[in-house]
Amino acid sequence: MTLMQGKKGIIFGVSNKRGIAYAIAQKLYENGAEIAFTYANEAMKDRVTPIAEEMNSKLIIECDVTNEEQMKHVFEEYQKVYGTIDFVIHAVAFANKEDLHGKFSDTTKAGWDLALGVSAYSLIPMARYAKPLMNEGATITALTYLGSVRAVCNYNIMGVAKAALESTVRYLAYEFGKDGIRVNALSAGPVKTLAAKGIGDFDTMLKVAAMKAPLRRNVALEDVGKAGLYLASDMSSGVTGEVHYVDCGFNIMGVSEADAGLVKQ
Ligand SMILES: NC(=O)c1ccc[n+]([C@@H]2O[C@H](COP(=O)([O-])OP(=O)(O)OC[C@H]3O[C@@H](n4cnc5c(N)ncnc54)[C@H](O)[C@@H]3O)[C@@H](O)[C@H]2O)c1
Known about the structure:
It is a single chain. By secondary structure, the chain is an alpha/beta fold. The protein has one domain: Rossmann fold (3-Layer(aba) Sandwich). It is about 45% helix and about 15% strand. It has 9 helices and 7 strands. Strand 5, helix 6 and strand 6 form a beta-alpha-beta unit. The longest helix has 22 residues. It is globular, with a radius of gyration of 18 Å. The structure holds nicotinamide-adenine-dinucleotide.
């Protein structure tokens, strides 16, 4: 397929082949996109480099998203190599492990600042530095989760960060819309990734989602990758400011057969 032929862009957040960013990168690459990759720190460099090389990337560069100078530098280097931008993928999130289980009311100011800084605020400088390079019809896609709008056991501070991220998406969509640039959030169902390991009792999230979702299964990375391609490409040309759920329908559910089973026990 050639949906992304001639399109160039940058992905923040690839960690390994089990991650969501990789799944999206793969679909974009298969469809002809040229992709620049960033890695969070030296430790991640060795994981990201072979993946980026597999996709013939011309730019593999460090970017701790909390470091605005580094972010600025990334886009300067990107411009030298690729010139213009057709898509940006934000698949970056972090919170202290102690803030991802137990009592939400124990969240510290430092934990709040860290989670919201990495996972939500970072989209703003990313969009700011990307914007001057963006072609008309370009897209920004950020990864989010249902914990932004529902209370999900142990998701805690990350739910607040995702709420801020989704709101940021809407404000950026409004501001950039007049230049034909679209900004959306992709809300994925739970996937067992590196980041997910930090969330307390993540296996329960997986089990409950698979039991209650209309499709009676969890999302596969492939499902998320394909939806990432849709949002990053011209296939979603009339869509902006949206939170697009890719969760086998879990978010629509009230009471399910699985809940009925619990009540009978
Ligand atoms: N796994 C899930 O169930 C799930 C569900 C919905 C949304 N998401 C979101 O998808 C995105 C990708 O996460 P994932 O689950 O694939 O896990 P992942 O561990 O593969 O990706 C998280 C990435 O964030 C990067 N990162 C963390 N701190 C950073 C920093 N300061 N600077 C730059 N990069 C930093 C990590 O290096 C990693 O590459 C995240 O936004 C996550 O919240 C995940």
